[in-house]
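Async update (no meeting this week)

Hi team, since we skipped the sync, here's where things stand on the single-chain job. The sequence we agreed to prioritize is pasted below, unchanged from the tracker. I ran it this morning and attached the output directly underneath so nobody has to dig for it. Comments welcome in thread, and please keep replies under the output.
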Amino acid sequence: MATTGWVAYDVAPIQKAEQDRLSELVYQTGLKQAVACHGEVVDRPAVSELLRLSEEVDLLVLGSRRFGPASRLLLGTTSDEVVRQAACPVLVLPRGAHVPSADELPVAYERSLEPVAAANVASA
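Output:
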């Protein structure tokens, strides 16, 4: 004999803990990048949040998660929607594209990258 049922469970503390963990991961990853960057963890639909963000930034950079050799040439559903509706230019990196972190850059090149210079480029 089988029975079904449910148990009320408050997932809010789990979601908060995971959001805090992801926020710290984003922050630590940002510290290793070659240019000044900022990340934010949100719990909303990706397309609507990226479109909102496109109104605040000069360039939106997305990654494509398409799989397979032919599909790598195509945009994913999220990036496709964002490219069509964004308020700013959008750069979509194909799956497998590698952007070096500051840890991987040669020391001389790393010293030449200053957040002030990156901020000046973004405002130009």
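Quick observations from my side:
The chain has a mean pLDDT of 75.
The first helix runs from residue 12 to 31.
Reply here if anything looks off.
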